[in-house]
Write a structure and sequence with these properties.
With 294 residues, the chain is of the alpha+beta class. It contains seven helices and eight strands. The strands form three sheets. The protein has a three-stranded antiparallel β-sheet with strand order 3-2-5, covered by helices on one side. Strands 6-7-8 form a three-stranded antiparallel β-sheet. A hairpin with a 2-residue loop joins strand 2 and strand 3 (39-44). The protein is rod-shaped and about 210 Å long.
């Protein structure tokens, strides 16, 4: 093969490599870091870009949202109860700071391990240590917000990473503590049951007292009614006796006046009451009734 053809082929391959190596594409979820001889010279936005072959290169950094999880993060509550916490942090690389991130850490995972991981471990333990075990369970939402605020506040000056959310996914206390919680809950349930029974007995006692008072009032009312009836009957009877006595007295008084004015009234009354039969026996010297013999 002639040397000219070989040389042309080599030149063609070099030209093809140069042409293919002079352009690049960056996805929408990425940002490119433009390097020239290994040094950062700029950033590349999503789309098609061009670079100097061989001299320039492009490193792509993901800016999509990613969630990192910390399992069994050992911490102690305010009342010295050990617990394993599960924390998840959702974050992303700042699109405007990918050049700084690459220059300092190279990759996002490295930045998370070196920057975010120590902050999460420290702030979670500090914030959780302000809560008692019971309060951490009862006020879990407030605890989650406090942890997020502490992590975000600590990382706010490091603008290469944007914290979007922090979630306290789980709190695992020791078996002994969980057993003590169970026993305490059972005791509280028993106390509530006793209180409910006491309240029920109190209400029942009040009902009994009310019923007894109602019955006593009924008996009292009946006795009062009977007494009033007896009194009224007595008053009516006395009134009748009084009226009868007054009538009889008036009659006697009338008779007395009549006898005083007419002495023969007695004889008239006797004659009115005589049955017309003469006595069969006579006392010597006596006269026949109603017959006067001069």
């Amino acid at each position: 093969m002639p040397r000219g053809i070989i040389a042309a082929a080599i030149i063609g391959l070099v030209a093809l490599a140069a042409i293919l190596g002079s352009w690049y594409t960056v996805d929408q979820t990425e940002r490119g870091v433009l390097l020239r001889n290994g040094a950062v010279v700029g950033t590349a936005q999503p789309g098609l870009g061009f670079k100097i072959p061989v001299i320039d290169s492009v490193e792509k950094i993901s800016v999509r949202t990613t969630t990192y999880t910390w399992d069994k993060m050992n911490s102690y509550s305010y009342d010295q109860q050990p617990a394993d916490l599960k924390i998840s942090v959702t974050l992303r690389a700042s699109p405007d700071k990918v050049a700084d991130l690459y220059a300092k850490f190279g990759r996002l995972d490295t930045a998370v391990n070196q920057v975010v991981n120590p902050v999460v471990n420290q702030q979670v333990k500090v914030v959780f240590g302000r809560y008692t075990a019971v309060k951490a369970i009862q006020e879990r939402g407030a605890l989650n917000s406090a942890i997020k605020d502490a992590i975000t506040e600590t990382l706010k000056y490091d603008s290469m990473i944007i914290i979007e959310s922090v979630q306290l996914e789980n709190i695992d206390f020791s078996a002994n503590y969980l057993h003590s919680i169970e026993q305490r809950m059972l005791a509280e349930v028993e106390v509530q049951k006793l209180q409910q029974n006491a309240e029920r007995e109190k209400v029942q006692a009040q009902i009994t007292v009310t019923q007894a008072n109602a019955k006593a009032n009924a008996v009292r009312a009946e006795a009062q009614a009977n007494a009033d009836a007896t009194r009224l009957n007595g008053e009516a009877k006395a009134s009748n006796i009084k009226i009868t006595g007054e009538a009889e007295a008036a009659a006697i008084e009338a008779r007395a006046k009549a006898l005083g004015t007419n002495p023969n009234l007695v004889t008239l009354v006797q004659a009115e009451r005589w049955n017309g039969v003469l006595p069969t026996t006579m006392v010597p010297g006596s006269a026949v009734p109603f017959v006067s013999v001069k």
